[in-house]
Design brief:
With 116 residues, the protein is mainly α. The chain has one domain. It contains three helices and no strands. Helix 2 runs antiparallel to helix 3. The radius of gyration is 18 Å and the shape is elongated.
Length: 116
């Protein structure tokens, strides 16, 4: 899971699992492990939304009860924070999902029947 958190190949730990910001690579550039079957879909979005929502709602509630700013201040303050948290957290959660798929052999690689 720590390799997935870093976006690294679950087999060798050296290559990247991403070919773009959130696009899963076809294969590891170092050990050539195929990622073709590692489709995590929208699975990482749910934990990201729950985590970011809890952080932002907790902080917004604290700010509201402490200083009572205008509504536009909340919008100006929280929108960039939400965007930054999404950009920071989503690739890490997606990497963890790919690493878990590899670890539990939920995908089959060519020539590796049964994940062995």
């Amino acid at each position: 899971m720590s390799l997935g958190l870093k976006g690294r190949c679950p087999r060798c730990g050296a290559g990247s699992i991403f070919s773009g910001y959130l696009k899963i690579a076809e294969a590891c550039p170092v050990c050539k492990l195929g990622f073709g079957g590692h489709d995590v879909g929208d699975g990482p979005v749910v934990p990201a939304m729950l985590l970011i929502g809890a952080i932002v709602v907790g902080l917004a509630l604290y700010v509201e009860l402490t200083w009572e700013p205008a509504l536009w201040v909340h919008l100006v303050m929280w929108l960039p924070i939400v965007v930054a948290l999404v950009l920071m957290i989503l690739p890490r959660i997606k990497g963890i999902a790919v690493a878990l798929q590899h670890g539990y052999r939920s995908t089959e690689e060519e020539g590796r029947i049964g994940g062995h």
